[in-house]
Design brief:
single chain, 123 residues, mainly beta, 4-stranded antiparallel beta sheet
């Protein structure tokens, strides 16, 4: 079965950190750029970050720039989103997606979506 599976979400206090993982099964992630999106309660889904196939190019939404780091380990077929200095406004379901190309921090030509992992930032 071809799928992306996110993990690593949870409850964290403001200022804390989490690392999300996006693992592929049934296909090789190195054929795709990977993007992270998030959807907060009552809001539309928004792009967060995108990483090139090699991992040599990354970009981030202004709201997370300087706090989030995206990386990939193609040997492990996994992409990571390290989230630091978390704020309550980062609370959302986080999704990863595999696509054809990044334009800034958005991924286009999406072929696969994960089902998401919930991140809650609260004291």
């Amino acid at each position: 079965q071809l799928q992306l599976v996110e993990s690593g979400g949870g409850l964290v206090q403001p200022g804390g950190s989490l690392r999300l993982s996006c693992a592929a099964s049934g296909f090789s992630l190195d054929h795709f750029v990977i993007g992270w999106f998030r959807q907060a309660p009552g809001k539309e889904r928004e792009g967060v970050s995108c990483i090139s196939r090699s991992g040599g190019s990354t970009d981030f939404a202004d709201s997370v720039k300087g706090r989030f780091i995206i990386s990939r380990d193609n040997a492990k077929n996994t992409v990571y989103l390290e989230m630091n200095s978390l704020k309550p406004e980062d609370t959302a379901i986080y999704y990863c997606a595999a696509g054809d190309y990044c334009s800034g921090y958005y991924v286009y030509g999406i072929k696969y979506w994960g089902k998401g992992t919930l991140v809650t930032v609260s004291s």
